[in-house]
Input
Amino acid sequence: MNSCQQRCAQLLDFIEQNLETDLDIPRLSAQACVSPFHLQRVFRGLCGFSVAYYIKQQRLKRAAWQLAYRPEMRVLDVALQASYESSEAFSRAFKQVCGQAPSEFRTAPDWSPWQLAGVAINHVRNEVLAMQNVDYVVELVEFPALSLVVCEHRGSPASLPQSIARFIGWRREQSLPPAKYRTFNLVYDDPDSVAPEDFRFDLAVAVNQQYELNEPGFVHKQLPALRCARIRHQGGDHGLDAAVRYLYTQWLQGNDEEPNNFPLFFERVSFFPDVPAHLAITDIYLPLRN
Output
């Protein structure tokens, strides 16, 4: 990675960690150690859009998750955290991106416009991160068997937020808070390698009893005892792809290991929006043959 790419990657991290603060061009230029003129040109050259656009989209993305999954937050509080001085200004900006006013989105969220708006940004974020020479720490661990209640998401990744909302709602009804009951994702498919209608992804909570499951798509499953390679990832989900690729390519090839027939899975140790995105912790588990 050259110095411009390195500074851009570091700046993306800095922006994500400081979304609630004043991210004006002089401050960002000082952080990147370049002049304001060069910062904007270099950023646009590497990312394809302006730094102001990136900041706005990241703030609105966080706002969308807060509206959907933090019902205790007032719209005004969400607006202020997104650096808007009034709920009216926030509402105009949010509706321009998502096609719904914040109150409408909270009641019946339509994630498809947001998914389309975020494709380019997520792609650039992943590409810039992939340029970094990350020194991943991989541990071999013996994972114990667990009983799970699973919400099976089947279909386009674009509709995954609806499944997340159903899963969160069920957990709240059953009093299974993440602070006390472990949260997992079973990752059956790479969304870039299967047709949208064939995508499979499980949202799961570890439980110690059987539940009467009347919600469609909710089932009991067993996570068996497994020998796994584990990477602990801190940060947003945009960094997960690079870590997973590392496990499947460089690490497997360099350690004479093979994956077994159980899917890759994540444990969400702490996650957004309960913590800021840059402080989220995800353990990535690759099950291995014995």
Summary: The two ends are 37 Å apart (CA to CA).
